[in-house]
Design goal:
Layout (H helix, E strand, L loop, with lengths): L24 E8 L4 E6 L14 E5 L5 E7 L2 E9 L9 E7 L4 E3 L2 E2 L6 E6 L27 E4 L5 H4 L8 E9 L6 E19 L2 E10 L14 E7 L7 E23 L1
Parallel strand pairs: 1-7, 1-8, 10-11
Antiparallel strand pairs: 1-4, 2-3, 2-5, 5-6, 9-15, 11-15, 12-13, 12-14, 12-15
Length: about 270
């Protein structure tokens, strides 16, 4: 005798079985303007993706043709953003919104800009300190104390892998020296921060203060992170009057805290 109860002939709603592929959707598309980018999709729309504490977040890298695809996405309303992981567009970010349905396929195209007329640059806009000295070392408390208090990088002769460190971890000033001349145009100085530990950074160009910023504490550097923490993009304007004929000097002065750099670049205009 069979005592098993009969199985009802009903369809189980998706909200009871989110783990099945049929109840999820896909978001795909292209990112133009950059050879490499990360695409982030998140449903806690009241938060920024790099500070999200609630909900779900998905991410994908673009391929060589700029295509990305994010599969098995829970249905719902999302924000979607792309940021570069190459080039020098450290302040470039494109964002949109998308609604995902069960079994649906959504297409979102995003565009990132790459600055032109670059005079010089250190590193790459990948939100990491990976192009600088010691960034490839395993986590260890010793590295925090190795970078010098004072440091000078000379554009054209210094090597970022040897002469610019993964973090400015002690109070003091670091300098970048380069050749330039007034030409009637301003300059755009991009300083991208890969991590910061309750820091105060002043940026001076030939003695003129162009930046005076305080950063929150992401705990990364003094907890031995070697490449990243909380990312911050800074864009400073250098007027034509602040440019001198011959050797120019940019000073990065830290009075408190620690800074990890992603990329620094100077653009004409």
């Amino acid at each position: 005798m069979n005592f098993d109860p009969p199985i009802p002939n009903v369809s189980i709603p998706c909200h009871f079985r989110y783990n099945t592929i049929l109840c999820r959707g896909q978001v795909s598309g292209t990112v133009s303007g950059q050879k490499s980018a990360t695409v982030v999709l998140w449903d806690s729309t009241g938060e920024e993706f790099d500070q999200q504490q609630l909900g779900y977040l998905y991410a994908a890298e673009t391929d060589s043709k700029g295509y990305y695809a994010i599969s098995n996405v829970r249905p719902g309303s999302y924000r979607i953003a792309a940021y570069p992981t190459a080039g020098l567009g450290s302040d470039s970010l494109d964002e949109s919104t998308v609604t995902v349905t069960a079994g649906g396929r959504e297409h979102v195209a995003l565009t990132l800009t790459e600055p032109s007329n670059i005079i010089w640059s250190l590193g790459e806009a990948n939100r990491l300190s990976s192009e600088f000295k010691y960034s490839d070392q395993p986590r260890n408390y010793q590295w925090e104390w190795v970078p010098p208090t004072e440091n000078t990088f000379v554009v054209g002769s210094s090597n970022p892998k040897e002469d610019w460190y993964y973090a400015q971890s002690q109070t003091g000033s670091w300098y970048i020296k380069y050749q330039d001349a007034p030409d009637g145009n301003s300059r755009t100085l991009r300083v991208a921060i890969a991590a910061s530990s309750k820091s105060h950074l002043q940026v001076l160009v030939n003695g003129h203060r162009v930046g005076d910023n305080y950063y929150d504490n992401d705990h990364a550097i003094y907890r031995s992170a070697m490449q990243s923490g909380q990312y911050t993009s800074n864009v400073f304007t250098v007027t034509n009057a602040q440019v001198v004929d011959g050797e120019n000097t940019i000073e990065f002065h830290i009075s408190i805290g620690q800074i990890m750099y992603d990329t620094i670049s100077l653009q004409r205009g």
